[in-house]
Structure formats: structure tokens, C-alpha cells
Amino acid sequence: MATEILMPALSPTMEEGTLAKWLVKEGDTVSAGDILAEIETDKATMEFEAVDEGVLGKILIEAGTEGVKVNTPIAVLVEEGEDADAAVKAAQEAAPAADADGKAASGGGSAPSAPAEPKRARPVAEPEIPEGTKMKSTTVREALRDAMAEEMRRDDDVFLMGEEVAEYQGAYKISQGLLDEFGAKRVIDTPITEHGFAGLGVGAAFGGLRPIVEFMTFNFAMQAVDQIINSAAKTLYMSGGQMGCPIVFRGPNGAAARVAAQHSQDYAAWYAHIPGLKVVQPYSAADAKGLLKTAIRDPNPVIFLENEILYGRSFEVPVLDDFTIPFGKARIWREGKDVTLVSFGIGMAHTLQAADALAKEGIEAEVIDLRTLRPLDTATVIESVKKTNRCVTVEEGFPVCSIGNHISAVLMQEAFDWLDAPVINCTGKDVPMPYAANLEKLALVTAKEVVEAARAVTYR
Amino acid sequence: MATRKPPAKPNTSKEELLTFYREMLLIRRFEEKAGQLYGMGLIGGFCHLYIGQEAVVVGLEAAAEEGDKRVTSYRDHGHMLACGMDPKGVMAELTGREGGYSKGKGGSMHMFSKERHFYGGHGIVGAQVPIGAGLAFSDKYKDNGRVTFTYFGDGAANQGQVAETYNMAQLWSLPVIFVIENNQYAMGTSVKRSTMSPDFWERGASYGIAGEAVDGMDVLAVKAAGEKAVAHCRAGKGPYILEIMTYRYRGHSMSDPAKYRSREEVQKIREERDAIEHVRELILQGKHATEDELKEIDKEIKAVVNEAAEFAKESPEPALDELYTDIYAETAPQNA
Ligand SMILES: Cc1ncc(C[n+]2csc(CCOP(=O)(O)OP(=O)(O)O)c2C)c(N)n1
Ligand SMILES: [Mg+2]
Fold it and tell me: Biased composition, Low complexity: where in the chain (chain A) (predicted)?
């Protein structure tokens, strides 16, 4: 009996991949554990092993094919002595059976991913980019790496430290190539000791260096939170201004896909709560690059919150020798007169999608990306609300004491007379992140919720 | 890893060998199936397979008594199967379904069974170590003679809370066995690239904690060491450290390209040191079963695993109102 070999999912966020290379050919006998092919996922090239034994009857997807969807049949395994062509035909005719599985898979197991990029994925005003600058399509992953590389070339005191940042090239491949260029003195693999190396980074900053400390994800920074807050954030104040702590703590923050309660928290509001920290959460690749460069040069501790789902997204990034973006300046992605939508980080993906949907209903939303949460550009938000008289905030974090709560309070104090409706905060739900696919979808904030909130504040 | 000493006259029995064979094979086949379901998208997120390390939990569970406790990391499927949890419930948790041990809300890394005294599945490296000592604290408090197996990896052994826990455990003579599953890698970092005193079991010495290193590819050696550790704890002598030398055959999780070690390294251990092969040889040498009888066992195990996979596919997704349940307890928990 023939068995179809399906394109495997090889990472939590993989939906499709490139079949880079076949390591077996038609007619080869394979046994469980043999490597069949090399597959490029969204972050790495992986070897794909056989789980069954048999003879490789037919290769259905040629090497080099890009964009092969997970669960597509890529080859057929037949039994010794079986006629390959007949078996392949039989297997393909029996496909409905395999299909039922496939459907269950996409219904039950598909990764929740941020909505696809709206067509005009470029902000209306880009004050940091001079007219006529050449733009280059770049992933957020590459933009972050480029920012670190440029700053490390510029300043010998900048170094990168964290788990798997050097030889493994980063757990999420953000530090790809940095060890090669800068060597083991400046790109340093640590043991799994977050509290220890975060504190060591703080000491190195006191000692005059410019550490970039990568947390494999910000969930693990909870192991280190005392050093971040009690040591990094407060020392300048406690020393009467003598001793600052120029350090960047960076890494992915928030939910990835199906990694459940202990690996899915959004810490934006936590860190934004702390005087002495600066907090950045970019959405686009250009902002990721420009803001990370600014963070590395800043004389204060900066929390730089990235997002795993956004790492693989491409955006236009200006080709400039030294492109930086100042902290505390929001960016307007879309102008509109009916309602102000305020978001940051991956929340922007939902927000831009909601704005597209609202436009079709005749509601013109103004979309603001905060980009930095501390300092917070309240002026841009207030200015916009004075025009639209309505505001919806969007974020992935928990609802209680959220960034949205804070913005609502600011608007109440400073723009009360301009508000025609109460501000609505769209957030993640008030529950630990569940693992089950259907519950995870419910727990996350969605574009649909943003659309409904916008309708509510515009009374439509 | 040193080569295995030839089993001169192993201190075991036919029944024991066959039980070990079955239990280890169940874990291996279960994990292979989980890997397959992951590839099909039925399991999501992180999924850390235990293939290669089966002898550790199977050997130690043979030294445990009913009522003893265990707690471990995210690489937990083997521990759950070995302590008698139902493969169906474990697999259905991996697929995130209602029939899973956590109703689909925990997933691969976060599963629990009060009935089997399994206190998790923990996703944060090292966090289970003080928790294990705390379980032992509760046993000592209640004076119930129980011990707690606290499993963690070579990577986790470097977390600060491990050192803090050793000190408290010895200070208060807690009946806890610290089981370091030294599979030589923490994700892509080998022990020698992360650790200055690579004999992890010796670290207990500075606190006065007894311990030893054990060949983790030999289930009989693991069981013997486990019995010694259990006796030490039950006698009220405080904690014990077992550093069990083992090896993981697969990547760290499903998305690990595993470029940090050679295929030859993995292949060599699979061929020369495999724990299941070892028991298989002992069974055949001792004429405790024929090849055909072992094949029959393989078939039975495959059937159990297939049944678990079917259950895990058929079990419905959790009801939507489960999103808001289990955040707070309504009544005081009845913890054993
Ligand atoms: C506090 C914390 N830091 C980092 C991680 C990411 N991480 C998960 S497993 C792992 C490696 C752990 O290795 P080891 O303790 O040897 O256990 P093994 O995976 O080999 O079983 C890392 C770094 C985490 N889950 N928690
Ligand atoms: Mg390890």
C-alpha cells in the first residue's frame, strides 16, 4: 500500500516552506529516521526524516519549489516490489481520506497568524525619511540584525549577550552572522541563567560598556525582572544622577502560536509602568531598525519588545547610512476623520486590517502606531482625537492596567471636551493563554473586535 | 559516554525486563507518533520529544512507590507515560482537545495529574526545581514517608534557583531526589560550552548533599541508583542527587535544525548505546522471549499508540466557555 508523504510543519509559525533539496531519489529504499529532504521553514533549513519505511515511489514536488503549503503531498512511499505508478495513482485517488486529516489539521492546529498586510503597508508621514530615499524590502528579522551590526561597527563597546545568540545564530535567527563578523568577544552565548546575565549586563553598563541583552523570549525575563527594575531602572536616580545604565534588553514578546500560557505573555504594560525604563515596541521593519539603533545609543535602560510572528514580515526600509528614529514619536499610518485607532507592535496588524474593513463601510479611521510606550507620544493621540472625537485602543496584553487604560485616562484628563463617546480598549482576554487552537483564537484580540468597537464609538 | 560494561549477570528477572521493554517502547513509539502529528499540523507550538532518554524515567519509576511525587520540565511526555498516565489523555492534550489531561488548555509543556501525583510539565527552565523541593517539604511536614522526583536538564542545572534550592533542601533535610537528565545539550549549547564544573552531581557536595552519576542508557543501572536514592530520602537523610547520563536523539523541539552536533554523533549513540536495544539484547540472551514474542509486544504497543492518536484526533476541541474557567478556584483545593 502506498503512503503519501506530506509537507511537514516544522515550526510553530510555519504555514508553507521551500522544498530545498531531496536527499533521496525515486526508487531508493528508505527506513524510518532516514533524511528525505531539506526544507526551509520561516526561520531555518531543517532536515526532514522518514517516519515509515518503504521505497520512494514518486517525487511529487521538485526540489527548489517555494511556497509549498503544509500538508501538501510531496512524495509517495510504496512497498517493496509494488508498481510505483499504479500505487501513486491509488494513493491520489484515496486522497479524500488524507484530506479529512488535512482539514482537521487546519481546523484544529493552524497557527493563529496576524492578518495579512493591507495593501498600502506604509505610513502616510515618515518624517525620518528624506524625500527620494531608496527603499528596500526587508524582514523585521533582517532589520533588527542590521541595526545591531551597524551599531557594533560604530561603537566597540556595544556587545550582544544571551542564550544561543552566537553559535546557534539566535533561537529566532535574529543574530545571524554576528558571531562571524564580531567574534566571540562581542557575541556571547550565556548559560541559561537569566537573572545572572541580566545583572551582569547591568554591571557591565555601570562599568562603561553598552550591552545588548537578548532574552530568548520576554517570558524568561521574568526570571531577571529584579535586575531590570531594581538595578537597571533605578540606579541613576538612587545615585543622584552619577551613574546611569545604558543597556538594551531585547527579544520577542507576546504570543507566538500555540505556545500556551507560560510562553505567550505581552509585557508592554508591565515595563511601561516603571519610571527609569524606556520601552519600545515596533511594528514595521523600518521602525524596528531605526528604533533599535536609537535604543543602543540611548544612555538609559531600554526594553525593546519584538514579536515572533512579525519577524518574517517584510516592509520597506530606507537605504540610508545611518537611519535612526527618535523615541516618543508616534507614527500616523493612515489618516481619517471618523475615529482614532491607537495601537503598537503586532496590534497594528489587526488595526490596519480593521481600518481597511471600516473604510468599506464608510468609516474613515485614523491609525496611530505609538512605537514607543515610554516616553509616550500623547500629543499625537490627543491631536487626532480632537479631530475624530472618538478613540479605540488595540493591544495584545491583558485588559487590566493596560496601555489602553492609560491612554483612556490621558484622554479623559486632556481631551474630555472633545470626546463624543467613551474610549474602548480592545485587548487580549483576561485569561492565561490557552493552548487549544480554538480557545487561543478567542483569547487574542482580533480585527473583528476592533471593527465592532469602532462602530460602537461612532454609533453605527 | 563511556561504552557500556557487558552485563555479567544482571540482577533482574524476566518479568522486569519485559516490563522495561514495554514501557520504554511505549514512550518511543508515542513520541514518534507525536512527531508525525506535529508534522501534520495536529499538534502545534513547542513539542519536545523524549526519544533516547526513555531509560531514565522507566528506571526511576521502578524505584518509586505508590504516592511518591514527580515534577519535571516541558520535555515531559515520557514522565507521564512512565508514571501510569493514560496515553490517550496525554496525546489528546498534545492536540489541544477536551479529552486531554488539561482539557486542551495546557498543551505539551503543561500537563498535570493529581491522581498520578504528577505535578507538571513546566515551561520555564529551572522553575520546577524549587517546586519539587516544596512538594518534598509538604511530605516532610505531613510525615508521610513520600519522596519527590524532581527532574531537570543539564541546562537548567545552571539556573540560580537550583543552587538556592539545594541549600534549602539540605538545610531542612527534605525528601527530594534531584534528577539531572544530562543529555549533554541545552538546545544548541553543549555542556562544555556552558558549564565550568561539568560533573553536575558533585555540585551538591558544597551543601553536603550526597549524589552520583548514573549510566542513563542502562535501565537496570538507573533503577539501582533510584533505589539507593529513595532509601536515603525515606531514611530521613535529606536530598539526593542523581546525574543521569543520557542523550536526546531528536532536535531540541520540532523546529531545531540541530546544526550543533554531527549526524555521526547521534548515529553512534543510537547504534551503540540505545537503552531499548540493550534490554532487548538482555531478553534474547537470557532467552526470556523469542524475536517473535518481542514482535508481538511491538505490535501491541503500536496498537496502544494508534488508539491514543485516534482518540486525540476524534476528541472535540474544548467548549468555548472553557476560556474563562479555571482561572480562580471556587473552593479550597483538595491537594493530596
Ligand atoms: C527561563 C527560561 N529560559 C529559557 C527558556 C528557553 N529554553 C527552553 S528549553 C531550553 C534548554 C534547556 O536545556 P536542558 O535544561 O538541558 O533540558 P533539555 O531540553 O535538554 O531536556 C531553553 C534555553 C525557557 N523555557 N525558560
Ligand atoms: Mg539538556
Answer: 89-99
Give per-residue burial for B3-16: e unless 16+ CB within 10 Å, then b.
eeeebeebebeeeb
Q: How far is A13 from chain B (nearest CA, A)?
A: 8
Q: What is the pTM of this model?
A: 0.92
Please report, in tens digits, the pLDDT of each residue of chain B (336 residues total): 656 665 556 789 999 999 999 999 999 999 999 999 999 999 999 999 999 999 999 999 999 999 999 999 999 999 999 999 999 999 999 999 999 999 999 999 999 999 999 999 999 999 999 999 999 999 999 999 999 999 999 999 999 999 999 999 999 999 999 999 999 999 999 999 999 988 999 999 999 999 999 999 999 999 999 999 999 999 999 999 999 999 999 999 988 888 999 999 999 999 999 999 999 999 999 999 999 999 999 999 999 999 999 999 999 999 999 999 999 998 776 665
Question: Which residues, numbered 77 to 136 in chain B, qualify as contacts with chain A under a Cβ-Cβ cut-off of 8 Å?
Answer: 93, 95-97, 102-110, 122-126
End-to-end alpha-carbon separation of chain A, Å? 59
**CB A136, CB A172: distance < 8 Å:** no
Tell me yes or no: is domain A331-457 CATH 3.40.50.920: yes
- Asked if A437's CB is within 8 angstroms of B255's CB, the reply is no
* CATH 2.40.50.100 for domain A3-94: yes
Task: Dig out the grid coordinates for B274 from the structure.
Answer: 540505545
The architecture of the domain spanning A135-318 is 3-Layer(aba) Sandwich (3.40)
Containing structural domain, residue B242: 14-251+286-313
Reported ipTM:
0.94
Q: Please state, in angstroms and rounded to a whole number, the distance separating the CA atoms of residues B231 and A22.
A: 54
Closest partner CB to B42 (pick from A105, A219, A257) = A105
